[in-house]
């Protein structure tokens, strides 16, 4: 990836933000570097001053979402993780909401990838790893007796994080609820329904 300041107001971060907006609005496959240049009022060569290719833009955008989610999950499942599996799972749900809110456009894009390019295939591999780790955390919470044992852990994990991911469709930073309130409500709804009775 090339780095540089570019024109005032159009540094690398601004170009990437606009690219993510366009990819979400028009679809990655339907958006060209020319479309991005037109949206920004730049030439294509000005875009290439910052990024080697359209795939480079996609890779960076998806990494924006995946890197923090990976960090959150890795902390919860790593050897240095503290506390019971239930508490760590609940914390992952809460922190995942925070990541989604902080990186909503990039997470929206991540949830729309289908594996049509090598960059998308790699992102899907990383998402599968996250799914596997979360299912393992659910399994551990069941084993410690904190969660009911009559539901498949993989299904519980998908449902939990399906709730989190659904925020991309309706959550607005300037809306009625801030990120901590949404995270607390989502965790309370999910876990109060999953607690062993």
UniProtKB/TrEMBL annotation:
**Start and end residues of each HTH tetR-type domain:** 9-69
Establish whether keyword DNA damage is in the entry.
Answer: no
Assigned keywords, A-Z: DNA-binding, Transcription, Transcription regulation
Query: Which organism is the protein's source?
Result: Actinoplanes awajinensis subsp. mycoplanecinus
MF terms (GO), sorted A to Z: DNA-binding transcription factor activity; transcription cis-regulatory region binding
- The yes or no answer to whether the keyword Transcription regulation is present is yes
Residue ranges forming the DNA-binding region read 32-51
- The protein's name is TetR family transcriptional regulator
Cited Gene3D superfamilies: Homeodomain-like (1.10.10.60), Tetracycline Repressor, domain 2 (1.10.357.10)
Domain of life from the UniProt record: Bacteria
Pfam families annotated for this entry?
TetR_C_24, TetR_N
Cross-referenced InterPro entries: Homeodomain-like_sf, HTH-type_TetR-like_transc_reg, HTH_TetR, KstR2_TetR_C, Tet_transcr_reg_TetR-rel_C_sf
SUPFAM superfamilies for the chain: Homeodomain-like, Tetracyclin repressor-like, C-terminal domain
């Amino acid at each position: 990836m090339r780095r540089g300041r570019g024109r005032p107001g159009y540094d690398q971060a601004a170009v990437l933000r606009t690219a993510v907006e366009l990819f979400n609005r028009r679809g990655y496959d339907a958006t060209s570097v020319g479309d991005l240049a037109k949206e920004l009022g730049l030439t294509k060569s000005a875009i290439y001053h910052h990024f080697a290719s359209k795939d480079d833009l996609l890779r960076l955008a998806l990494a924006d979402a995946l890197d923090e989610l990976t960090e959150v999950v890795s902390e919860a499942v790593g050897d240095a993780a503290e506390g019971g599996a239930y508490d760590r799972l609940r914390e992952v749900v809460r922190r995942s909401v925070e990541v989604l809110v902080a990186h909503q456009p990039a997470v929206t894009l991540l949830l729309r990838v289908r594996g049509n390019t090598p960059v998308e295939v790699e992102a899907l591999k990383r998402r599968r790893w996250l799914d596997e780790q979360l299912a393992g955390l659910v399994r551990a919470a069941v084993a410690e007796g904190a969660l009911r044992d009559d539901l498949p852990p993989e299904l519980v994990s998908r449902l939990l994080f399906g709730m989190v991911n659904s925020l991309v469709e309706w959550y607005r930073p300037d809306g009625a609820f801030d990120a901590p309130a949404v995270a607390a409500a989502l965790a309370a709804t999910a876990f109060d329904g999953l607690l062993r009775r």
